[in-house]
Amino acid sequence: MASEPCVLFWILVLHVQIFVVIGNPRVPCLFVFGDSLVDNGNNNDLETQAKANYKPYGIDFPEGVSGRFTNGRTIADMIGHLLGFKNFVPPHATVKDEEISTGVNYGSGSAGIRDESGRHLGDRLSLATQIRNHKAIITRITNLQNNKTLTDGHLKSCIYLSNIGSNDYINNFLIPELYPECHKYSSDEYAAILVRQYSQHLTTLYNMGARKVAVFGLGQIGCALEVIARFGTPGSSSCVDLINDSVNIFNGRLKPAVDKLNNDFPDSRFTFINVTSILAPQGDVQFPNIPCCKVRSDGQCIPDTEPCPNRGLSVYYDGFHPTEIANTVLATRSYTAISALDASPYDIAHLSQVADD
Ligand SMILES: *[C@@H]1O[C@H](CO)[C@@H](O)[C@H](O)[C@H]1NC(C)=O
Ligand SMILES: *[C@@H]1O[C@H](CO)[C@@H](O)[C@H](O)[C@H]1NC(C)=O
Ligand SMILES: *[C@@H]1O[C@H](CO)[C@@H](O)[C@H](O)[C@H]1NC(C)=O
For a surface tag, which of 197, 214, 324, 341 has the fewest beta carbons within 10 Å of its beta carbon? Predict the structure, then answer.
C-alpha cells in the first residue's frame, strides 16, 4: 500500500518530462505578480523574516540558492518554460533594461492583496506595490522601444500571472492577536472584501495594457503542514476544515469576479486557475504529509539543514511551500487543463494562442 502514492507521482513526472520546447516563445513576454509561491529573489534585500536565500532552498535549482521558496523551480518558472522562454523571468529587484521587454517577476514572499498582510514578518511588496513597480517598468519599456503603438501591442500580447491571497489568510485573518480583520469581519465578508480589492487591482492591470491574465485561486491552506501544526485538526479530519472553508468561499467568489472582468472588458482574457481541482487527491491516493526539510517555528526550512533525499515524493518542501514536483503538476495542468474545472474559461496554452484584438 505504501508505494501507491509514489507510483502515481512518477507517472506525473514522466508525463511532464516529455515536454520539449523548440523555437521561439509563444508570447513575447511574461509578467508575474504574487507571493512566495512565485517570488524569485525580490525579498532577498528586504528587512524581513520571509526570505529564502539560504540552503536548503534551491538545492535542485540550476542556479542554486536564489530566494525561491522551494527546492527547485516555482510554478512561474515552469509556466515560463512551457511557454518556450529559454531564460527565467528575472526578479524586479535586479532586472536590467535589456531584460525588461520579455518580462519581469514582481512576486514577494509574505505579500498579500491587502497592504498590511504579512506586516509582522517585515517588509514585503504588496500587490499594490507590485502594480506600481509594473507601471515604472512600462515607462522604461516605452522609453526603450520609443514607439507607443509598438509598446501597446507588445503589452497586449504578454501573459500575466497573478498568484496571491494566501497571506491575506495565513499572515492576516488567521492571526487575531496581531490583525484586527478577523474580529471585524466574518469569513464571507472578508472574502468579499478581498475579492473586491483583487478585482480593482486586476482592473488597474488591464488599464495598464494587460489582456491575457491567469488568476490563480488559493490552494487548501487548511492542509498546509504549518497551519495544521498551528491550529490542530479536530476529530478525524486531516486538514483544518474551517480554514479550507474560508478559502473555498474566497475561491467561490474569485471565479465569478474573473468572469465579470471578461464581461466588463470584452477585449480581455482573464482566466481562473483552480488550484484545488489540480491538487485534489486522485481517488484514494494520499501523498505523504510531511515537510521535506526540517522546519523552524515559522514554517520555513532551518538554514543549512539536510532536506529529505526523495524530493520527488513530497508535496511540501517546508511547512507551507510546494516542492518543485508539486509546482510541476500545478504548472502543467494550468498550462494544459485535463479537467474542465482546472482552468476556466481558458488554460494558459489557449491564453497564449488567442489572437490579440
Ligand atoms: C511603430 O510601431 C508600429 C507597430 O509595430 C509600426 O507599424 C510603425 O511603423 C512604427 N512607427 C515607427 C515610426 O517606427
Ligand atoms: C478542506 O476542507 C473542506 C471543508 O471542510 C473539505 O470539504 C475538503 O475536503 C478539505 N480539503 C482537503 C484537501 O482535505
Ligand atoms: C475547483 O474545483 C473543485 C473540484 O476539485 C470544485 O469542487 C470547486 O467548486 C472548484 N472551484 C471553483 C471556484 O470553481
Answer: 341
The Cα 142–Cα 352 span in angstroms is 23
Specify the residue for cell string 487543463. 337
The CA distance from 76 to 30, in Å, is: 9
Predicted structure pTM score:
0.93
pLDDT score at 16: 47
Asked if pLDDT for residue 343 goes beyond 70, the answer is: yes
What is the Cα 233 distance to its own chain's centre? Answer: 26
Q: Are 48 and 4 in contact (CB under 8 A)?
A: no
* pLDDT for position 11: 42
Ligand 1 pocket test: pick from 150, 151, 156, 157 the residue with the most ligand atoms within 8 Å of its Cβ.
150
Q: Which amino acids bring their CB within 6 angstroms of ligand 1?
A: 147, 149-150, 153
What order of strands is seen across the sheet that includes strand 30-34? 30-34, 159-163, 212-216, 269-273, 343-344
Catalytic site residue 183?
no
pLDDT of residue 280: 81
Q: Which three cell numbers stand for residue 274?
A: 483552480
Residue type, 107: G
Q: Per-residue pLDDT averaged across 60-72, rounded? A: 97
Query: Considering only CA atoms, which residue is closest to atom 9 of ligand 3?
Result: 252
Q: How far is the C-alpha of 249 from the C-alpha of 231, rounded, in Å?
A: 19
